[in-house]
Amino acid sequence: MRIPFKLVVGIMLIDAKVNGKAGHLVFDTGAVQTTLNTRYFNGEDGDIKAYTYDATEHENMNTNTVQMINSVIEFSSYKIENNTVAIDMSYVENPLKEIDKDVVFLGSLGFDFIKNHKVTIDYENKVIILDEDFEKKGVQIPLEMGIVPMMDVTINGNDYKFVFDTGASYCVFNTDFNDIFDIQPDEKGLFKAPLIKCGSVGILEATSQVADLSAIKDNFGASGIIGYPLLKDYISNINFENKMLTLVK
Predict the structure, then answer these.
(1) What residues contact 82, with CB distance under 8 A and at least 6 apart?
(2) Do residues 191 and 208 lie in contact, with contact meaning Cβ atoms separated by under 8 Å?
(3) Which residues have a Cβ under 8 Å from the Cβ of 149 and sit 6 or more positions away?
(4) Are 108 and 25 spatial neighbours (Cβ–Cβ below 8 Å)?
């Protein structure tokens, strides 16, 4: 199955419909579960019903209650009918619309869907390929599977775990990195990171930012997030069953 995507500041947007509304979903391994944007889905339209449920014992939630939407999500030949979490995702949508005003950001297609498929990402041809055999040889980077995928990285000789996030435009470092190396952000809060090694692959001067990642550090043991800066120059094959990322030039 081949799914074309639009690339906006390193984020893959696939055409989709949710409850009949056309727009875009981010292909996002860093999202624990598929999530909708309350700008478009707030429980007020026709047969869409919003409700809350007790999430205190749900390992993926930090809040006591979450809003859920009865949703029909359609993209390519897929049709997913489910109750889907809905949150305010303006923090994602607004920067995207500054670059491309035509983006209609419906939400994120999350790891709950993606993990069940073999995934190949071809940035040059802007296509995601699902469940096709991948025979090409390349550099392999082991993945650690939890409620999100993670990988080991090395920076300045020290080892860390980073979330592997196909929805991340930049590398993101937890705030404690301010005390580890000298960070001089620009007016947009971005900086060039020192060499990041992922297995035998090195990323030099990756565009990065610092953010409070205490939630993912506490929940997943991860100190940062890595995505587009690692993948952008390769054809990337992700085999979640075998816990392996293969990068091919």
Answers:
(1) 34, 71, 73
(2) yes
(3) 29, 111, 115, 143, 163, 164, 238, 240
(4) yes
The pair of structure tokens assigned to 120 is 């190949």
Cα separation, 65 vs 213, in Å, equals 21
Say how far apart CA 100 and CA 227 lie, in whole Å. 21
Backbone angles phi, psi at 99, to 5 degrees: -90, -40
Q: Is the pLDDT of residue 55 over 50?
A: no
**Both tokens of residue 125?**
């041809």
DSSP lists the bridge partners of residue 149 as 145
User: Using CA atoms, how far apart are residues 177 and 245, in angstroms rounded to an integer?
Assistant: 26
CA atoms within 13 A on the CB side of 102: 5
- The residue whose two tokens read 């054809």 is 235
Under DSSP, the state recorded for 52 is E
Instruction: Please list the alpha-helical segments (H only) found in the chain.
Output: 90-99, 111-114, 214-220, 228-231
Per-residue model confidence as pLDDT tens digits over 175-230: 999 888 888 899 989 999 999 999 999 999 999 999 999 999 998 899 999 999 99
Select from 145, 149, 161, 235 the least CA-distant residue to 198: 161
> With 70 as the cut, is the pLDDT of residue 57 above it?
no
What is the residue whose two structure tokens read 């026709």?
46
Whole-prediction pTM? 0.89
d(CA 157, CA 195): 10
Going from the C-alpha of 4 to that of each of 8, 12, 95, 116, the distances in angstroms are 13, 9, 22, 19
φ, ψ at 90 (rounded to 5°): -60, -25
Confidence of residue 56 (pLDDT cuts 50, 70, 90): very low
